[in-house]
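B., you asked whether I could sanity-check this one before it goes into the benchmark set. Here's the sequence:
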Amino acid sequence: MDKVTLPAVFVDLAELEPDVDPGTGELALVTHWEARVIVAESQPDAQAVQRGMVLAVMHWLFSSDFPSENVGKAKLKQAGPDHFAPEMQGHDVWLIEWTQQIRVGGSVWDGAGVIPTQVFLGIGNDSDEVTRGGDSI
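And here's what the prediction gave me:
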């Protein structure tokens, strides 16, 4: 194992699942994330330091989004003690879980390639007649 200076925050991408197809040619996914805030039990005021770090991470997630990168706002699920890591004995570990929607790839509507032209569809004077761009069909 590598040596790490504590306190520390470790972030893991835990899962990817398909999201609703946006109709843009992009792959829509819901990403599931986990962050572990680790503090040595021997650190003075370990619990206060850890809770402050947990709140800081949660606040940053809550207030950040990256629309230019096709990353949606984080949806926080929960935060709490993580007692399931025996290798972390002697350390306090809190787990923060959240999801974020992302889109991967380029949109077919980004302005590159074929550019749509204006088309008018409607009912003409005769109820059986449909007009397109002013021409009857």
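One thing to flag: The helical segments are 46-63. Otherwise nothing jumped out at me.
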